[in-house]
Amino acid sequence: MNIIGRKEEQDILQDCLESKRPEFLLVYGRRRIGKTYLVKEFFRNEFSFFATGVPGEKTRDQLSAFNEYLIQYGDTESRIPKNWLEAFRRLRTLLEQRNVKRDTWSGKRVIFLDEMPWMATAKSDFTMALDLFWNGWASTQTDLLLIVCGSAASWIIDHILMDTGGMYNRITRSIHLMPLSLKECKELLSLNGNIIPSKGVIDCYMVFGGVPYYLNMLNPRLSLARNIDRLIFQENGTLHHEYDMLFRSLFRNADNHFAVLKKLGERKDGILREELLDDPDIPGGETLTRTLKELEQCGFVRKYRNYSMKSKSGIFQITDPFTLFALKFVVPDKVSSWMDYLKTPSYNAWTGNAFEILCLNHVREIKRCLGVEGVSSEEYAWRSKKAVPGVQIDLLIDRKDDIINLCEMKYSDGEYAIDAAYEKELLYKQSVFSEESKTRKALHITMVTSGGLKRNRHWQIAVNEVSAERL
Q1: Given this model, what pLDDT does residue 4 score?
Q2: In a domain, 266, yes or no
Q3: pLDDT digits (tens, 9 = 90+) for 310-340
Q4: What is the dihedral of CA 103, 108, 114, 120, to 10 degrees?
């Protein structure tokens, strides 16, 4: 197998094979994240049955494609099924054959239905047929593993995760596939022949995130800046229209998601749900709740609480690097060449925000670098309600061992140097937080930097330091 990272996910797949019961596994996550690759690579592309949905096609065309897969795996009926009930009946007959292909190691019959939401066209009997297939037969087969996969978040949430009908509580295991970590990105880039220093990998992540599909497009013969121009800013670039295509492929009413993301993109520290309601382009009520939930489910947005906030009302913030990049530079159409934009004041402002998002996506790795990976903790942000000038801390790690890490995240080309003014600012933040939070825990100023902390007369204000190169 040639799988980068994904250890926990591979463990789940292995557990499914070792299980003595029928397993119904859901694999979901944003588009381009590598769901299909993970399953196919783990099983060496050897299944008792595999089929994938066809994007944008009607029920008849979906059934026609499914019929071709049935024939490919040995079904002797050649005509197109008249409905999904018949299609799944034929699949059951195929799987009951004595010579059906089985997993070599476990002997299990493994069925993989990829991009299943595309199969479930409007007004078709797909969901009912799948219910009957699983509840009426497959759930009694102890040697059967059914894997379903899809990127269409709306459908997955409504018909699988939150279903109250036939699929209720039927999923036995699930994998929510998330982006690769910084370390895994470096490994993938290296595998593809991209010889990039650690600082370059950080810059790459700040644009493309940990999305394997994007990283695999980088040409190792070109610099990162030229790759960004070629892929994103050129009119015929492969990713020039990716932002629009990505969300329209994931959500049925993508305009609601675009409106929310546009508003969130205006504030790097996030926005309260109540503040989103002030925008006339954003529908409220259940529509807004659903939109935010879907963006959160797919990993584009995080919901967090202010440390001092008593209510459960959350702050929403974009945490997907590519989405932030597109909102900042592609959607407004103000940048025509990344090569020309580098090192400008606006570029420098973006790097600060993008690096903070990188850090927020690597809290577990930050804790590992601090040596407290096994310590239970909760993560917050914090804004002062009283201080003038205002005080904000983007990441607090509130640990069960009575320590709170006040994390300051700083991007720079080389080592970051704390000067006298910044030392004074850090002490002020620490003092204001201590006074307003009334915490009795020890407060550790923690510097998370892109290239390390410069040893000067002010650096020891930081109790801890973490270089992103170690994440």
Answers
A1: 94
A2: yes
A3: 556 688 999 999 999 999 999 998 889 999 9
A4: 150
Residues of the chain with pLDDT under 70: 1, 153-154, 163-168, 309-313
- Report how far Cα 332 is from the mean position of its chain's Cα atoms: 24
Question: What's the structural domain count of the chain?
Answer: 3
Structural domain harbouring 26: 7-176
Which one-letter amino acid corresponds to residue 6? R
Q: How far apart are CA 167 and CA 136, in angstroms?
A: 12
- Quote the pLDDT of residue 377: 95
Same domain, 199 and 269: yes
d(CA 196, CA 207): 15
CATH of the domain at 466: 3.40.1350
- Note whether 308 and 398 are same-domain residues: no
Same-domain pairing of 146 and 192: no
Q: What is the CATH number of the domain that holds 135?
A: 3.40.50.300
Q: Report the 3 state secondary structure along the chain.
A: CCCCCCHHHHHHHHHHHHCCCCEEEEEECCCCCCHHHHHHHHCCCCCCEEEECCCCCCHHHHHHHHHHHHHHCCCCCCCCCCCHHHHHHHHHHHHCCCCCCCCCCCCCEEEEEECHHHHCCCCCCHHHHHHHHHHHCHHHCCCEEEEEEECCHHHHHHHHHCCCCCCCCCCCEEEECCCCCHHHHHHHHHHCCCCCCHHHHHHHHHHHCCCHHHHCCCCCCCCHHHHHHHHHHCCCCCCCCHHHHHHHHHCCCHHHHHHHHHHHCCCCCCEEHHHHCCCCCCCCHHHHHHHHHHHHHCCCEEEECECCCCCCCCEEEECCHHHHHHHHHHCCCCCCCHHHHCCCHHHHHHHHHHHHHHHHCCHHHHHHHHCCCCCCEEEEEEECCCCCCCCEEEEEEEECCCEEEEEEEECCCCCECCCHHHHHHHHHHHHHHHHHHCCCCEEEEEEEECCCECCCCCHHHCCEEEEHHHC
Whole-structure pTM value: 0.91
User: Residues 6 or more apart from 191 whose CB is under 8 A from it?
Assistant: 4
Q: What angle do CA 419, 422, 425 make, to 5 degrees?
A: 155
126 and 224 within one domain: no
Q: 254-264 vs 242-250: helix axis angle to the nearest 10?
A: 130
CA nearest to 178, candidates 25, 294, 299: 299
Contact 140, 146 (CB under 8 A): no
- How large is the angle between the packed helices 182-191 and 198-208, nearest 10 degrees? 100
The answer to whether residue 1 is domain-embedded is no
- Bridge-partner residues for 453, per DSSP? 416
